[in-house]
Amino acid sequence: MSAPWPPARRRTGLAVDLGSTRTRVWALGGGMVLDVPTVTFSDAGRGPGTLHPVRRRDIDVAGTARMLDRLLRQGPRRLGRPLVVLTAPVLDGVAYRAAARAAVEVLRPRAVLTLPTARAVAAAAREDLSRPLLVVDVGARFTEAVLLVDGAVADAHRATLGACGLDGEPAATARLVDAVAAMVASVPDEDRTAAAPSAPARGVLLAGGGALRPEFVHRLARRLHVAVKVVPAPDTAAVRGAAELLGSARLHPSFTGDARLPVNE
Prior knowledge:
By secondary structure, the chain is an alpha/beta fold.
C-alpha cells in the first residue's frame, strides 16, 4: 500500500478535455491553464510537421503525450503527482478511454478517472440529476445525444456532424438540426426505461462549440418544440464539469492513500 499524499499535495488535480480541435486543462485552485488547438509535431522530425493526434474514436497516444508534455512541461513538475479527471465521449468506447489514459500518463498522475462528457456537462450546468436529463454535446466533428438517469448514462446516440462548417452554411445548419432532432426523438423509442418519455419533455441541455451558434440553437428549439437550455460558456463546459469533480476529490482513495481500490474508473 502506498503512503498517503503529504497534506500540501492532497488537493493537487487536473481536469483534462481532449477534443479533436481543442485541448483544455483546468488546474484545481488555478482555473483554466490550457486552451489550445489539439496539434503536435512529428517525433524527431519524421513524417509531416503538424499532426492532429485526437480524431473521432481514435487517439494517437504518443502524439497526444508529446503535446501534453510540451504544453504542460513545467506544470506537472510543480504539481507533483496530480489526480487527473479525464472527459471522454460516451460512444468512443473502452479502447478510446484506455488510449486517453495512456496519453495522460506523461503527467505522472497519482490516478486517472474517466468521466463521460455528458456527465461533465451536467455538472458544469449544476443540473438536478434526480430527474432524467437529455444532454446534447455539439462538438467540432460529431454530436452526441445522451440520456442521463440518476447521473448515469442510460442511452446515447451519435451523428457524424458537428459545428465545423456551420458558418454561413444554412444547409449545414439544417442537416445538423435534422440529425439532433432524430437522435432526441429516438430516445423514447429505443430506451424502454420508465424515465425515457419524461426526458425530452424536460428539454435539452446543449453544450459544445455548436451551442455558440445562435442560428443553430434557435432552429433546433423551433424543431424540437421543447426548451433548449445552453450551458454557460458551452465550449468549455466539459472541462469545467470535470473540475467540479476535482473539487470533491479529497474523498477519493487516491487522496486518502487507500491503494486497495481501483484508480481508473
